[in-house]
Amino acid sequence: MRKLYQICLFLLFLISWMSIVHAKPQVVATTSDLGSLVSEIGKDKVSVTTISKPTEDPHFVDAKPGFIVKLNRADMLINGGLMLEAAWLPPLVLGARNVKIQPGNPGYMNAAAGIDVLEVPSVANRAMGDIHPLGNPHFMLDPANAKIVAAHISGRLCQIDKKNCEYYRNNAATFSKKLNQKLSEWQKILEPFQGTKIVTYHKTFPYFAKRFHFNVVGTLEPKPGIPPSPAHLNTLIPMMQKEDVKLILIENFRERKIPEFAASRTNAKVVIVPIMVEGEKGTDNYIALFDYIINEIASALKT
Amino acid sequence: MNQLRYMLIVCITVGWFIILNTHSSKAASAVTDDNTSLANSAKESSEEIHMKADEFNEIVEQLQGMKAFLEQMKQDYDARFQEMQEKIAILEREKALLEKEKALWRIETQTGTETSPHTADFPTIQETGVSKEDEGPFLPSFKEEEEPPDVEQQPLPPQTEMDTTPPSPFPAIPELATPQTTTPQTPTIPETGQWSPAQPITLWSAGAGYMNISFVGLFAAAASTSPDLDELEAGAHDPIQRGFTVQNLETVFEGAVDPYFKGQANIIFQIDEEGESFLEVEEAYLTTLSLPLNLQVKAGTFFTEFGRLNQLHPHAWNFVDQPLVIGRFLSPDGLRNPGARISWLAPADIYTELFLTVQNSQGETVRSFRFEEDGEGLFGRSAVETKVRSMEDLLYVPRMVTSFDITEEQTVLLGASAAFGPNSTGRDKDTIIYGIDMFWKWKSKYASGGFPFLAWQTEVLRRHFEAGEDESAGLPDEVIRDWGAYSEVTWGFKNRWVAGLRGDYVEGEKEATSPLGFERWRLSPNITFYPSEFSKIRLQYNYDSILSTDDTEHSVFLQFEFLLGSHGAHTF
Fold first, then answer.
1. Range of the structural domain that residue B426 is part of
2. Predicted confidence (pLDDT) at residue A34 exceeds the cutoff of 80
3. Coil, helix or strand at residue B267
């Protein structure tokens, strides 16, 4: 008995020792935009995996058991929060049986914390569609929010990996400096188009529109999560004509038929953009993603 | 903590005094020096005096500039302070309003009147949205200050000369310092305290917020060539009569118990053929969150982890009814009983998990084991043993699952299970059920709303039943082996639309008296429309071929479902 006890202790020691030696923090991000920020800050000192594919609708991701393994080994989990991942993340976290990434521990990070959340409904009522009761979760489409998240990430990485703290902070500072610079660049590009009226497919772009001064006058979806209906289009299209909507902004995973139909009846142009890092070729980091989006919009509005 | 802070402040003030004193005394001595030198060399050129005067003027100018700047700052801050106060007032008003609405809403939901009482709901939201946007122009300007990185941009004193004055009240902030000091604060505060407009969410998770409550209503209308649909359909939640059936009214409670456990309970209401309502505790269990060594324990009463379908509640099925083999081998209600389960996640790169479930082996939810219905067991024998007496009489169910991606868009899950336990037909009579299951899914890289996808699921079960001797029925002691399988394909061909096809086969049971025990195969095409994730309408046709009697039966079902509240996510 005593011997068994000793062996067990030894094994425990070995396992804990191994986990200490295996020191490079493993970070799992639910979406690739968050993952990209982690890579900007952690660079070669952390390893990052993302769960949702950059090209798919982040609301509906399969809770594939393969991710359980990743979460099981993770030192940190970053999710967007605001119930974006509510439909698929909980079973994965439960299956992962990893204390480090349970809410309340430094290894669990809700990126929405500290963000000025838009579109928070006063009453959660599903008659209004699949609204997010905590507010719109697409806040990463405002680069200013990315700065907050980056600072948050570097703080958390510091808690997890104290010895590289300075490194993370420096990287975060460099990143937000770069982002500041780029942001003013982007704003300059879009300055001539301030106040342009646009229509989106889903309520994906309120943060983006607010930052770059677009005016979202409607969505193709009659209500969040409900596909466009003929009745809704019958009111939307005249409105678009009246309001002189210039742009229909849609994500790259949406069907194209209805946006193109609406565009053909109005003055608007359809612009298809990725909303996640690596959602399209040449968008392999957060800044490149915005370069792409801004460029697409600007070139569509110029002509 | 506070004491420390006070000490620090005191230290700093004292330090200031000292520095100021030395400075002024030095200046004073310098002045006196100058005076003496002036007195000594009275003939100093007036130019020098002019220069001194210039210098002096310059200093005065600087000081005045500083004063102006400080005043400006003060005004600025006052204005901001006022703005903030206004904002707070607005927010508080909004909060009060919200709370009023909340209270109203609560009352209305409690009294059970319409859940969408306010036609005003929509407008109010729009209003808040609009008001938010109205605030836009000034909101960011004041918000931005909170964003740590923006502090870099904050205009420092415009007078560059100021930099030279050593005790500048505005120390140039080192770029890195700000994110450092602010980051630990910004993230933590909003997560816990701080009122945020997000709070009405408590409503969503129904009141207390400690658990999610949801309700699922599942109904079916059936038409069939067979007058006794309950002899065709094996499952306890299947449509069992021509006309309408209440398949399942399920209330789900789930949430974190504490930092160590998660709890879940599924309470089912059903209405039987006679119109009698009854209640059934389908599952109630807790799961550990953080055991060491990759272990996880589940304890309570729950669906046995055997195969894929057995663990799913009827509303998560892809078809209106239960596959025949599941109803016959496992149980019409699904194999479930009180017990405990331990699982181990292998520390491999490919997901592999081992389960071992230990449960009671008696009751009506373990059909092939210590099952008893009106004194009857299986295969025409009367039930002799119906209790658990020792450890050996428990039901042991090991299972192993593995899953991996074949390509970026395709995933496979393979599983093997077995169930060992005693049966009711005699002393030391055991049953073993083996099962293998397979699930394959393709989902587009550009999926929107989870569509399009194609999935294929198959389970094959084999049963080894040691039947005891029953002298009164004239049945010998024998070993009965039979098998069954189902295979289903579901195709999400368009947003919100899923087409399905299922094939079923079971071997005949010995001494069977109805199609429930006969050898038969069945083909069930169906189509499902999901108006949203929270509702569905399904049309299904069953082609039933009963091989033992050479009969063919046709059935058509229309199923509809609604889901209220916050329902936990489903597993893959």
1. 205-565
2. yes
3. strand
